[in-house]
Design a protein that fits this description.
Layout: H1 3-18, H2 35-47, E1 52-55, E2 58-59, H3 67-83, E3 89-92, E4 95-97, H4 101-109, E5 124-126
Parallel strand pairs: 1-3, 2-4, 4-5
Length: 139
């Protein structure tokens, strides 16, 4: 495979994995607006060669989606994909904004966050661009 094709594939994969791709209830987070839109996006992913996708909605002070919120949505979406004959598995996760490391650690240990794949090994962290909300910095 030509080097430019490998770079394009890696870039496309990085972009696809970095953005939330599948739905939550209308008006929550930045995923698909409806089940029909989510199914269309899933079909596109399958045509593009994907067998699984991660869904990682935001979890921050403005939109606090926790593990208990995320897992039922992922289960319903996986069921809808199966019913529609779309061979794609959605893996749960969340993009957790950390502004207070002590609170994050405590809440993480309590199992509030949906780690990538719903496994404790990996958490996708998001840090604010505002200096006053970055842990360890004063604005």
């Amino acid at each position: 495979m030509a080097a430019w094709r490998r770079r394009m594939r890696l870039t496309k994969e990085a972009i696809a994995n970095a953005r939330p791709a599948l739905p939550h209830p209308a008006g929550v987070d930045d995923g698909a607006a409806s089940l029909d839109e989510a199914l269309a996006m899933a079909r596109f992913c399958v045509r593009d060669g994907h067998h699984s996708r991660r869904r990682h909605p935001h979890c921050h002070r403005h939109c606090r989606l926790l593990r208990a919120d995320i897992l039922p949505h992922v289960a319903r979406l996986n069921e809808a994909l199966t019913d529609a004959g779309v061979p794609l598995a959605i893996l749960p996760g969340s993009e957790v904004q950390v502004t207070d490391t002590a609170a994050y650690r405590r809440e993480c240990m309590d199992g509030l966050y949906c780690n990538l794949g719903d496994r404790p090994a990996f958490t996708l962290l998001e840090f604010s661009l505002e200096g006053r909300t970055v842990p360890g910095r004063r604005g």
